[in-house]
Amino acid sequence: MNTIKMKTEVANCLTTVQLKNLFNNNTLLLRLPEFFDPFSCATLSQKIHQRMPLGFYENAPKIGRIGKAFYETISNPDSHDEYFQNSSQWIENLRKCCFPYISPIDALRVMLDDLWPKGSTVASLDGRRMFVGLARYFTSESSAEPHQDIIQRDAPGTDLSAKVQRQIAFNVYLTTPEYGGEIEIWDWIATQEDFYRFKDSRTDFAYAFDRTLIPEADLLIKPNTGDLILFNSNNVHAVTPSSDDRLSISCFIGYCGDDSPLVLWS
Ligand SMILES: O=C(O)CCC(=O)C(=O)O
Ligand SMILES: [Fe+2]
């Protein structure tokens, strides 16, 4: 348990060293408390709910979202095209919706440009610009079962999956539930073989591991409103059921080598 504790870190601001520790899996999870203050979080959540249409993941229909995750489009060519056709518009929509506040994704982009030697850029996949800035919405009905986010599995054979060497998840929590909504993380980068072996057999959970077949998580963290949390998304992770609304703005950050820009997508 001590080793796991050392793998979580709390900080006031993000540094290059912390990012590298996340990419290398020396840190399992990094938390920046009050990255956004409570008033900004309340204002942004309200604006987002009022101005942006909520949908549900096509392949995880219990999880609400605004914009679309690349993962949803991987086995549906129409959805795939829609994702790329709308990506710039969805980025702009979030920016406009947050104005005059900064959208959490724009805050991240500026921060990465300042701290990473080659800055950051929105990812492209075989020449098509991706979307970044998915708002994820969990209600009392929803949770995320144990899963991994690995671009090589979602977009095999593409230029992006060839160049991304490490992937971390970025989440800023604008609304958090009174109970539940914790992140569970396993200190375990499961192989594709492990995934097939321990896969959830229910249709709505094709992305997930079956909890009854895998060990308990190594870490349970309850995000507070305004927190920024980063973790290596190749590790198995999950979100426990929430007692009420939980809204986060999220994306992935891909490491493509020390001399390349970081790439961002949702
Ligand atoms: O909402 C969260 O806390 C984490 C969600 C997740 O699975 C991810 O960001 O990859
Ligand atoms: Fe995830």
Overview of the molecule:
It is a single chain. The model has no long low-confidence stretch (mean pLDDT 93). The protein has helices at 2-6, 16-23, 38-51, 77-98, 104-115, 151-154, 159-163, 192-198; strands spanning 8-10, 29-32, 55-57, 60-66, 120-122, 124-125, 128-129, 134-138, 144-147, 166-175, 183-185, 219-221, 228-232, 237-239, 246-255, 262-265. The strands form 3 sheets. Strands 1, 2, 3, 4, 5, 8, 10, 13, 15 and 16 form a 10-stranded mixed sheet that branches. A 4-stranded antiparallel sheet has the order 9-14-11-12, with no helix packed on it. A two-stranded antiparallel sheet has the order 6-7. The protein is globular, with a radius of gyration of 17 Å. A hairpin with a 2-residue loop joins strand 3 and strand 4 (60-66). The longest helix has 22 residues, at 77-98. The chain has a single domain (2-265), classed as q2cbj1_9rhob like domain (Jelly Rolls, Sandwich). The two termini are 32 Å apart. The chain is 29% helix and 27% strand. It is of the alpha+beta class and 266 residues long. It has 8 helices and 16 strands. The structure holds 2-oxoglutaric acid and fe (ii) ion. It holds the Pfam family 2OG-FeII_Oxy_3. Belongs to the iron/ascorbate-dependent oxidoreductase family. It comes from Endozoicomonas gorgoniicola. InterPro entries: Oxoglu/Fe-dep_dioxygenase_dom (IPR005123), Pro_4_hyd_alph_FE2OG_OXY (IPR044862). Residues 128-255 form the Fe2OG dioxygenase domain.
